[in-house]
């Protein structure tokens, strides 16, 4: 059965499609970068647009103090000098992420962007290589061409780093739980993506990894508090509810780029409270399914994949560029296919999931008034759970 999965991924047709898709993405990135930076064409998509916020925050923190990053008065002029935008883009991140981006403020914007993207690409690529290396070169080529990575590069977002940290933690967990805990702690830069990790570790009785993650997370938070002062955390806690109200609950322009069940409900016309109810009806079963798999003695690849998919489903707010995380469950399921073959339905769901970041990106670009990504995530979780409960050899 393992041979069948590897053979399918190594088939010339699959390799050809992967190379074509990767080539298209590289050409799109190159043309966008040349138009925007080379010819100063502000009508072109800006490669690294969201990194403008990161770099601006680093500069503001260095020049005016960390609490100033939550102020449009200080952030706005730096952002507008780099990126012609209709409105001020706020800094909605905790001081732990500010601690990570501060060094980039010491570089020019261009140098900082290249360094930031280079680190993210290297970490993400190394993580994926480790996961799929036993599935053959075809699987690795397929994951290199995964559109979620290119979209994260286009936007200049941190999703390559957070996905690399999550994937690294899952890869290391069976053999090096202390190092896995350290990787988990990196998610302190975007802590909402680590919300289910303690649940999974407790269910699996991974006490060493849990302790390591807690200590390292507290250390990162403590360093940020010492470096920036208590008032920065107070400013963040004050700003976050307002950001949630304006951008998440009532931000119609963001809902088309939010591949969550909450955004889908809001786009469907439901009021805020009803949208939260619909979101909870999906998030809670997803979390329970993930916990159930981590309690049971099922194949680790399936538990890892379920944790990532459930993590995405329990978010009321994340953006299309965070779908770089989808590479993890796809890669883990492909690795699991070495043991138990994928059926046609499994392959179809994986193919749709693989294309999902591109579909979500263009849905945002063209203001599509519907969100289908949550349905795809639910389908992927169903595939994972079904594979966990189906006896080996029955596929």
Verbal overview:
It is a multi-pass membrane protein. The chain crosses the membrane at residues 16-37, 97-123, 135-154, 160-189, 209-230, 250-269, 276-295, 307-333, 345-364, 370-389. This is DUF2029 domain-containing protein. Keywords: Cell membrane, Membrane, Transferase, Transmembrane, Transmembrane helix. The protein has 20 helices and no strands. The mean pLDDT is 92. The chain is globular and about 60 Å long. α2 runs parallel beside α8 and α16 (272-295) packs parallel to α20. The chain is 71% helix and 0% strand. The protein starts with a helix and ends in a 6-residue tail after the last helix. 48% of the residues are buried. By secondary structure, the chain is mainly alpha-helical. The protein has one domain (2-389).
Structural class: mainly alpha
Strand content range: under 5%
| Strand/helix succession | HHHHHHHHHHHHHHHHHHHH
For the CA atoms, what is the radius of gyration? Answer: 21 Å
Helical amount among residues, as a percent range?
Answer: over 70%
Uncertain segments are none
Distance between the termini: 10 Å
Q: Could you tell me the number of beta strands?
A: 0
The main β sheet shows up as: none
Overall geometric form: globular
Average pLDDT confidence is 92
The total of helices stands at 20
Q: Could you say how many structural domains there are in total?
A: 1
């Amino acid at each position: 059965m393992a041979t069948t999965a590897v053979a399918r991924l190594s088939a010339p047709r699959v390799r050809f499609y992967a190379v074509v898709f990767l080539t298209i993405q590289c050409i799109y990135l190159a043309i966008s970068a040349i138009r925007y930076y080379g010819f100063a064409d502000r009508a072109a998509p800006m490669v690294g647009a969201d990194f403008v916020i990161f770099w601006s925050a680093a500069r503001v923190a260095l020049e005016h103090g960390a609490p100033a990053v939550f102020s449009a008065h200080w952030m706005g002029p730096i952002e507008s000098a780099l990126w012609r935008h209709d409105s001020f883009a706020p800094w909605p991140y905790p001081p732990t992420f500010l601690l990570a981006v501060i060094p980039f403020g010491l570089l020019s914007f261009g140098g900082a962007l290249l360094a930031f993207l280079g680190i993210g690409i290297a970490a993400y690529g190394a993580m994926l290589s480790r996961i799929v290396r036993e599935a053959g070169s075809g699987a690795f080529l397929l994951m290199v061409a995964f559109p979620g990575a290119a979209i994260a590069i286009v936007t200049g977002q941190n999703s390559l780093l957070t996905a690399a940290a999550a994937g690294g933690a899952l890869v290391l967990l069976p053999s090096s739980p202390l190092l896995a805990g350290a990787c988990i702690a990196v998610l302190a830069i975007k802590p909402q993506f680590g919300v289910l990790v303690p649940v999974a570790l407790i269910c699996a009785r991974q006490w060493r990894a849990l302790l390591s993650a807690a200590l390292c997370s507290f250390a990162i938070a403590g360093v940020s508090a010492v470096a920036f002062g208590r008032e920065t955390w107070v400013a963040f806690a004050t700003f976050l509810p307002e950001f949630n109200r304006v951008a998440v609950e009532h931000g119609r322009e963001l809902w088309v780029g939010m591949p969550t069940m909450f955004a889908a409900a809001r786009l469907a016309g439901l009021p805020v409270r009803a949208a939260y109810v619909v979101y909870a009806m999906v998030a809670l079963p997803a979390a329970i399914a993930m916990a159930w798999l981590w309690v049971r003695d099922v194949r680790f690849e399936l538990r890892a994949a379920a944790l990532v998919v459930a993590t995405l489903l329990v978010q009321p707010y994340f953006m299309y560029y965070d779908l770089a995380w989808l590479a993890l469950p796809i890669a883990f399921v492909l690795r699991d296919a070495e043991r138990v073959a994928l059926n046609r339905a499994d392959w179809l769901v994986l193919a749709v999931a693989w294309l999902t970041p591109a579909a979500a990106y263009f849905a945002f670009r063209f203001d599509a008034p519907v969100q289908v990504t949550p349905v795809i995530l639910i389908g992927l979780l169903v595939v994972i759970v079904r594979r966990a409960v189906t006896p080996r050899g029955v596929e």
